[in-house]
């Protein structure tokens, strides 16, 4: 299977997709504008507008300096000269656009003209599998803690260390797969993550000791950790700019994964003996993950990201992938290697394409050992240096990483142990949840089927949050858009974490506050996962999102250790810490200087 994961992909060629290429003179007939605007509006967008004296003008907003992010605005003239003006528009603090950046703009334009179609929607579902698997396992493992405590005679506090092993695997996986997707390609990571998760997840159902469970949870965490940074970056690079809100909508798979996990836990763990229920449950979600891998690998033909191919010097394959998208979507495209070279190099000759093709053939003849050695040589600090190439991008990188780190610790301090919190809230006759002096939190615990039912209700309440996030991120309002929606949902989350402890004196109150919390946190995470890859340019997008996810997982690794060792009440203090950390993330979000709504990604 490892050989299949590595070798099971063929190089793309434009010859594989006949009939999709149209001459540049006919490109305007197949453009995004021709499908979305009347012809008169299209003419004004391309040529400008006439004043009362009959003089032609362009919108001055077209020349706005946007740094690494280019505002989506008027359509360029479909000619070599028109494309040259378009790709060189704007500046980067006096620096010129690189060849890669200018060619990326042309690829963005070609993908935008092809538009959303069958391939993009299929990819939406398959990338959704990664988000689904992430929360399926993160929440699933938290749901097994009471059963592990009962079967292996481990105290309620000590069993929380189990989650630390999961997060150890998650932080290593997010870092390796995030940067690895920039070096080895998105496609390999896209499939390998689910395969690793499924194999070790199924194996964990047969563990005979708590130590064995912890080891296997860490191993499956290595696979799970790569899902979100890799799948988000991959989907983004195939997404037309006009459909950018779908990246946020992709997060709807996250609460669906939690919902599936909670329903299966309610069915198995809530109704079977402790030593059987969790094993049936883990085996079931392992089989679900394996099925998702099989669909990804054997049924769907995934193209490598054209941005990755372009940044790797494989321009011919990048163009072929765009042709492949057009073919799968039943559309036409005007993009060719000759156009890319003529626009960027100022040459209309076909000669620049020739050595590039020869280089690709030579690369195919290299030995496997040389390929692996060459690619892994790219793992260095040089991968991260471009994230600080300008003051604005550097500040944004630091702030977004800070947000990921604080949320990474704050989120599991509440959610990883929510079944425990819910169970104690309903067992005290409407009183404040009992402190650990009155109920022995250092003894093994058992949780009723009612608690698993309430957890399932909480999971259902989180699903609309992702739907609302997808709508709010494109609203033209200072309180919404990417930054506004992200900050507002994070603030609401912090407030209701405090209310959960302060006023959650009954089972019904705890359920209500946890439902609102799930709703707000799904908005927060949905926007955060969409906003982050939009900030970074494609050559280091995997590295940027990978480090963010790595910090998220590292701080998440600390969360269960704090929850198990923090002095005082083991049921209220962790939630107060969670509220403080989420509030700190809110402050960081307010300070982020970049808004990516309506902007083109490089």
TrEMBL record:
Subcellular compartments: Membrane
Every Major facilitator superfamily (MFS) profile domain range: 123-597
TM segment ranges: 119-138, 158-177, 189-210, 216-239, 246-269, 281-303, 393-414, 485-501, 507-531, 575-594
Disordered: annotated segments: 29-67
Keyword Cytoplasm: no
SUPFAM superfamilies membership: MFS general substrate transporter (SSF103473)
InterPro entries assigned to the protein according to its UniProt record, in alphabetical order: MFS, MFS_dom, MFS_trans_sf
Membrane topology, as annotated: Multi-pass membrane protein
Main location: membrane
GO cellular component terms listed in the entry, alphabetical order: membrane
Pfam families membership: MFS_1
Domain of life: Eukaryota
The entry's keywords: Membrane, Transmembrane, Transmembrane helix, Transport
GO molecular function: transmembrane transporter activity
Family: Belongs to the major facilitator superfamily.
Protein name per its UniProtKB record: Major facilitator superfamily (MFS) profile domain-containing protein
